[in-house]
Amino acid sequence: MKAIGLIAEYNPFHNGHMYQIKKIKEMYPDYKLILILSGNYTQRGDISIIDKWKKTEIALKAGVDLVVELPFAFATQSADYFSYGAITLLEYLKVDKLIFGSESDNIDDLKLIASTQLNNDEFDKLVKIYSKFGYNYPTALSKALEDLTGKKIDTPNDLLGVSYIKTILKYNYNIEPVIIKRINNYHEKELNKVFSSATSIREALKNNKSITREVPSFVIPYLTNLHYLDDYFKILKYKIITSYNLEEYQTVDVGFDKLFKKYINEVNSIDELIMKVKSKKYTYNKISRMLLHILCNFKKSDDDIFKEISYIRILGFNDKGRVYLNSVKKDIDIPIISKITKNKDKMLEFEINTSKIYDITNNEKLYKKEFQKINYYKDSKEI
Fold it and tell me: What is the average pLDDT across 303-319?
């Protein structure tokens, strides 16, 4: 029994995601589709506009067979940590191939760049040099790689794809990376009728614009009780004002304790705060991740607890997914959790707390679903 691995945030699920799933089904009709899903928070340091349970139902209806949660500790970090957590889960689950979107559509270039990062001693030196000139890390990385390989890589999916491949190479995982050409612009903020970006769809939803052409029809009913990062601004403001040293929180660099405390009473939103402290060296997303980690009380002292995948959290499956999981679980040496009981590890306890924080603004008691039966989609046929 063979499986394809897919890594996504679905924030929200749109036509481009549906295109990708259908394309995978055409390319590999006999493979099961295993999704590693970011939960209620995302890699860019944002809140997912809909909760992980809705996203799981959508994924199952779209044709995914098994949905597994990527823990907060990996889902909200930089590309290399994000990739390590997601790819390690796929390795545990015995997937044969990883499929991801790519702007360049050139797997050989991405493999060359990943190998250069791992094996060329000059790479780290060049990144440090470019960083000293004030470039942020993604730009310094891109410039160093272009110097060493002659290949330019500066688009989000290609950069993330390189991190996926690098993880596979570094840990000698038995997963083959395969790419599908990305058909929309990750950063565009204007709707593009059919293949709009998740960014543009979130902007449209925030401004009460119609997105019926941009997402599959079965997704529309799920786009209610939406969450936005600024909904948590007052809570974050309290945390910043009352914390003794903000640099104890994960990813918060030296100097940001003073910066955040200096401006927090001058701004009226998280976006305003980020723009106040943003510089050439620090990207918007990097600062947003700092603030998310402050909000959720994710501390640097937690590193030892959260540096490895310690369980596999099942969010949902269909008939084919259940059969696949049963076929591989005997060879998996970490706990497979479909419903949380009192026997929790530290990472899982932290995950429950982040669910409670996510629930603060809407008060839907979503965290209670952590202790209930998982999503089961009986009809395996995709929409």
Answer: 92
